[in-house]
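To whoever picks this up:

The nightly regression suite flagged DUF2848 domain-containing protein as changed. Nothing in the input moved, so I suspect the structure step. Input below, exactly as stored in the fixture:
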Amino acid sequence: MFPLRFDVGGQAVEVRVKTLLNAGYAGRSQDDVAAHVAELAELGVPAPTRTPCLYPVAPYLAMQTDAVPVQHGRTSGEAEWALVITDDDVLLTAACDHTDRELEVHGVAWSKQAGPDVLGREAWRLADVEDHLDELTLTAWAGGEKIQDGTLADLLTPHYWLDELRERGLAEPGTVLISGTIPMTPGVDQFATTWRVDLADPRTGDTITCSYAVNPMPEPVA
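Regenerated output under the current build:
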């Protein structure tokens, strides 16, 4: 598998991913999450047995890429942040969990395995932003149209997930956790040919971006 490389304040940091985890149903308000689970159930998406959820996925699905190949037209991203544990630090970056919506109705864990987690090429040290985490903004565009817009206050905190990782013996170098996402704006076509996610710090004006094209693969010969 290829290592991830981050620019952290001008310093290059390389991480070989050993464990990749996707959080799900990870809104700060679990009452809102329960309502969302009920909405998804009406669309045929199986309800989880508990929330929040944590889905292990193959480590090679953590990518820094400009293009995501897809097998059909019903895949889309999700605006998220990612925790990256290095040998001596914890980093925070932008991420986009590209998900197969056709598979999602059969099993969320399966759908997570069918697409990559695209991460930004820059990162911040968690310690440098932890005193104002809830002010950080998370925004996504599908095909150039804004589809998600919120703050980290909408999601369970990085420290919540670090505690969860410690309990499971997973808070170790090479672990990457993707945060779960915020609500999408109704009426925007999520099945777009491009996706972009911005993680921004309004105090400094700094922004970490991950963006990519969605490229259909050739039809199978079978």
